[in-house]
Amino acid sequence: AALRIRNEVALMAPDVVFWQAGAADAIARTPPDELKDTLNQAIGWLKEHEIDVVLIGMRYIRAMARDKHYQDIRRAIRDAQREQGILRVGHYEAVETLDRIRRQRGESPTELDLTDAGALCMANFLSRALAAKLFAKPQPTALPAPSPTGSDTGSTPAPSAPDQRAPAPKGN
Fold first, then answer.
1. Taking residues 116-145, what's their average pLDDT?
2. pLDDT of residue 60
3. For the sheet containing 52-56, what is the strand order?
4. In DSSP terms, which residues pair with 19 in a beta bridge?
């Protein structure tokens, strides 16, 4: 995945990469430390190229809630996110919470119900992450006011630096 991301970045030159990590690694039984190292290296490379990264956490699958390897992969993603200081969309946590609430209400949500709910959550999370990317950047400093163009009124142009002042008028 890291090599594919580098290739896509070279082709597309994005400002931000949304990376859903971990599912293939969980299926392939990738060692969690290996995944974490790969994430840290790839995210570091993206940051060196001034590309923001948002990690998207793994899906909540009720049957995997007690699977040690699946949970270790989740932890590896969270650890890489914290070490890199980037945003992580907590997809698993959001859907797990929805599942718990629905069960407390006496409902019996199916995996399909949870997948649908997760898709709605994902859209909301991604739109918020994108909005944060667009609007949380430092704004450029204000440009100095343009100096007035020469006119027949004999006015003095505005000073170019804040500590310079036009001479005070003489008289009365």
1. 66
2. 87
3. 16-20, 52-56, 87-89
4. 55
